[in-house]
Design goal:
The protein has helices at 2-25, 27-61, 67-84, 88-97, 100-113. The protein is mainly α.
């Protein structure tokens, strides 16, 4: 239900803001502001995205929980989409998501609503200190059974998959 309200409310807010700002400063300055925010937003998203990617790589190399850099990276990606969308309201929300304190507060709010059972970065472990039984213990060996079929040249009937 909230998504439907957002899909209706956001375009109405954007139209109202375009009319207000365009009436106050004119058409061309309004369009220039929209263009400049898209350019500035693209630059900021790119630089902050690189920083979050390095934090994510560091969390993997130090065997730490990568949840916060992943969520922060997703918020940066979402802010980039908002900043490329023409409009003042979406730009405001997009720029807000580029502020690290806002992302951290949003992450804490999200984390309170989602419960993670366990995290174990060691390969082949389930997070409970024992090896994963689905993972082969001895490298890339996969055990299985096979049945050898006779190698006769007799026609096997029409399967329907090929044309004659």
């Amino acid at each position: 239900m909230w998504l439907l309200i957002a899909f209706i409310a956001v375009p109405l807010i954007e139209i109202a803001l375009f009319i207000q700002v365009g009436g106050f400063i004119g058409l061309w300055p309004t369009l220039l502001i929209v263009l400049l925010t898209a350019i500035a937003g693209t630059y900021l998203v790119k630089s902050q995205g690189r920083m979050e990617l390095s934090k994510l790589q560091r969390s993997f190399s130090e065997v730490q929980d990568p949840t916060e850099p992943l969520v922060s990276g997703a918020m940066i990606l979402f802010s980039g989409a908002l900043l490329l969308t023409p409009g003042f309201f979406t730009d405001a929300v997009g720029f807000a998501l580029l502020i690290p304190a806002v992302r951290k507060a949003a992450y804490k709010a999200i984390r309170e609503r989602i419960q993670v059972q366990s995290f174990d970065a060691r390969a082949g472990h389930t997070g409970h200190g024992r090896p994963d039984p689905r993972r082969p213990a001895g490298g890339d060996v996969i055990e299985g059974e096979f049945t050898e079929l006779p190698d006769d040249d007799a026609p096997r009937g029409d399967s329907g998959w090929t044309k004659r």
